[in-house]
Amino acid sequence: MAADLSQLVKAYDVRGVVPDQWDESLAELFGAAFARVTGADAIVTGHDMRPSSPGLAAAFARGAAAQGVDVTEIGLCSTDQLYYASGALDLPGAMFTASHNPAQYNGIKMCRAGAAPVGQDTGLTEIRELVERWSESGAPEPAATTGTITRRDTLEDYAAHLRSLVDLTSIRPLKVVVDAGNGMGGHTVPTVFAGLPLDLVPMYFELDGTFPNHEANPLDPANLVDLQKRVREESADLGIAFDGDADRCFVVDAQGDPVSPSAITALVASRELARNGGKGTIIHNLITSWSVPEVVKENGGTPVRTRVGHSFIKAEMAKSGAIFGGEHSAHYYFADFWNADTGMLAALHVLAALGGQEGPLSALVAQYDRYVGSGEINSTVADQADRLLAIREAYGTREDVTLDDLDGLTVSSADWWFNVRPSNTEPLLRLNAEARDEETMTKVRDEVLGIIRA
């Protein structure tokens, strides 16, 4: 029987429960398929702190080496550290992580040389087809010469590269609480922050893929509670939370109030534009706040709106020569980082901006946080298309709104907008709404939810 990969291979990566949905024998086939599809002579691999990660990564390396490919293993790393290695070494890469998912999950994020994404339309479909075929008919033929497997430590080089992109030498001393959630931030933060004028208060830096303190998913407000409390107790200047593979960062101010990823996107965009002489393209997905394109234009840049998802962002970054991109989910993409996403570099920008002036973070970000947003609200529905049609019919005849279908359905007026888009993997509709004031946002949000949940 061929392995059923329909629930394992997603749009952008491989992700599932170990060993129920996949194991080391399948990981070895993925390694062979990755070698075949990329056609590379050499690749680089890394893994997070989950109990199953070292074994899966080693099996993947064996599969690739059997195809004659030399494998550089960088071992424990964050996802953006793997992207660094792929970019700096100019090699295709594979990162073993399930990001913020619970402990029983694991996955593979793959990229071509220079951290270029591998997704359904850029090689992942072909990889899946090979693994399915081999799982039914037996392992692929090995190459005449087996590739080598060697170890290499890239943590110091990764940290030095990030610090070369943001000048933190002259900032005022800052007290920062960092919640690593027992994820890979506990591995990378001490090295990246070393020597900077920071009083670091670490939380949950012990690498533990069972996540004993809370899920490593800062997008869920429940997982920020410990950080918010500690920031207030320590009278810290700010708090930073990383997800499990430390490629996303979330920020709270001195009062413990979350700073929206849109405000961080606008702040970093203004800094990157300043570094580039007030010129450049900035990518933002269609869920980010109106603030983002406004700030980009005010700082001389050109905003470009895209669909949600890293493959769309990275493709548009490459196509337009953009210098920076941001998403509402706290993924931040940098041209100086091979168009890949790195929460750590975004965090350094926040520290540089805060430390370069005397005011609190809340005052600094106020200029970038101009509207009232609902956040993402998920609703389980029986028929996604039917509910989207009902929304279109409710708003389509109004003269004061415009509709567009870039990603789901976006309805915009002079004072508010909302987007409803279907999940690709679950029977959900996701609503994001924004308005010029709380009362209008609440009215629009509840009106649309009434249609979705009718």
TrEMBL record:
GO terms for biological process: carbohydrate metabolic process. Keywords: Isomerase, Magnesium, Metal-binding, Phosphoprotein. It comes from the Bacteria. Its cofactor is Mg(2+). Residues 7-135, 156-256, 263-371 form the Alpha-D-phosphohexomutase alpha/beta/alpha domain. Residues 376-449 form the Alpha-D-phosphohexomutase C-terminal domain. GO terms for molecular function: intramolecular phosphotransferase activity; metal ion binding. The keyword rRNA-binding does not apply. InterPro entries: A-D-PHexomutase_a/b/a-I, A-D-PHexomutase_a/b/a-I/II/III, A-D-PHexomutase_a/b/a-II, A-D-PHexomutase_a/b/a-III, A-D-PHexomutase_C, A-D-PHexomutase_C_sf, Alpha-D-phosphohexomutase_SF. Belongs to the phosphohexose mutase family. NCBIfam families: PRK09542.1. This is Phosphomannomutase/phosphoglucomutase.
